[in-house]
Write a structure and sequence with these properties.
alpha/beta, D-Amino Acid Oxidase, Chain A, domain 2, FAD/NAD(P)-binding domain, 353 residues, single chain
Length: 353
């Protein structure tokens, strides 16, 4: 650790009520720590609300956070047993024609007949696809609410629509958070505010290169039974919720009119109709740009700021994938003072000159 922190912090303030902040709050509360969550807007109002929420642990090339990513799925399975109302659809994923090179240790190469069994609505199943049966997806907004409800049941306080204005610093140690409703004292402040994390750290003299990386999130009204798992192909990236809603994700191209969310929704709808039998009635319901917190080097930023004591940062993409394992490991090292080896590649100190 770069600065002295309490061996057993009595009060943790988590800034941000997205899925990462909610996981941190729940894990801290489950350890008996007093937790207050402070959110500038509403619960899951940031990128969590525009997340495709594919729990996808595959990676292309060398993975600097392989140890962290490797525990992500098991951490979500654990939370499903602990948190009332938190459910993940473990229906697996099919990938083909994307040529992005992502694989996981559980990847299986399957043929056309098996593909057709898994996704019978595909009009023209490819000859081969990568099947990753251990992967799944969740409703990120519902999961965030479930985590915060569980944290509240353990004594946590959640304060929404309360922006953080600054910090109280004494002898190079943060001792409180200044909000629009006054000062909240804290032993440790955890910054988990998505793309707003860098601006908060800047108030403390820490420059973190966390970029706002845009992606298109789409939601459609659709008949049930179109998609059983997750399909990621050259034509579309889609999954279907329990209520029949079809979710899709697209890369952000530029701000040209043809690439605005509404136009992308129509274009993707055409692609889905072309690819899936029974999708003729699919209709766009919601389209938006989500801004993901993307560290400059692509590696999560997790750990204490070296510039000032008592401030811990959690900023990452993919946030939904890593929220469960990061909440578990970060809360353990904050409470015990013992560094988690799986987080070593993620420390903010790497950005110091």
């Amino acid at each position: 650790m770069n600065r002295e922190v309490p061996k057993r912090p009595k009060h943790i303030v988590v800034v941000g009520a997205g899925i990462v902040g909610a996981s941190l709050a729940y894990h801290h509360a489950s350890k008996g720590t007093q937790v207050t969550v402070v959110e500038a807007d509403g619960i899951a109002s940031g990128v969590t609300g525009t997340s495709f929420a594919w729990i996808n642990t595959s990676c292309a090339g060398i993975d600097p956070i392989a140890a962290l990513r490797g525990g992500a799925i098991a951490a979500w399975h654990r939370l499903e047993t602990q948190v009332p109302g938190l459910t993940v659809r473990w229906h697996g994923a099919l990938s083909y024609g994307t040529q992005d090179g992502r694989v996981s240790p559980e990847s299986l190469l399957i043929d056309r007949s098996r593909i057709a069994q898994l996704e019978p609505q595909l009009r023209q199943p490819p000859g081969q696809a990568v099947h990753e049966p251990e992967q799944g997806a969740l409703d990120a907004v519902a999961a965030t609410h479930a985590l915060l409800a569980a944290a509240r049941a353990l004594g946590a306080t959640v304060l929404t629509h309360m922006p953080v204005l600054g910090f109280v610093v004494q002898d190079a140690q943060v001792t409180g958070v200044e909000t629009t409703a006054g000062i909240i004292e804290a032993d440790v402040v955890v910054l988990a505010a998505g793309t707003g994390t860098a601006a908060l750290a800047e108030k403390l003299g820490a420059s973190l290169p966390i970029l706002a990386s845009p992606a298109i999130f789409l939601r459609y009204q659709a008949p049930p039974g179109l998609v059983r798992g997750i399909i990621s192909s050259h034509a579309m990236e889609v999954r279907q919720g329990e209520d029949g809603t079809v979710l899709a994700a697209e890369d952000y191209v530029d701000d040209a009119p043809d690439n605005q969310p509404a136009a992308m929704a129509l274009r993707t709808a055409r692609a889905i109709r072309n690819e899936l039998a029974g999708a003729d009635a699919i209709a766009p319901e919601f389209a938006a740009v989500g801004l993901r917190p993307m560290p400059f080097d692509g590696v999560p930023v997790i750990g204490y700021l070296p510039q000032v004591g008592g401030v811990y940062v959690c900023a990452m993409h993919p946030g939904v994938v890593l929220a469960a394992i990061v909440g578990q490991l970060a809360s353990e090292e904050i409470v015990t003072g013992e560094p988690a080896s799986a987080l070593e590649a993620c420390r903010p100190a790497r950005f110091l000159a």
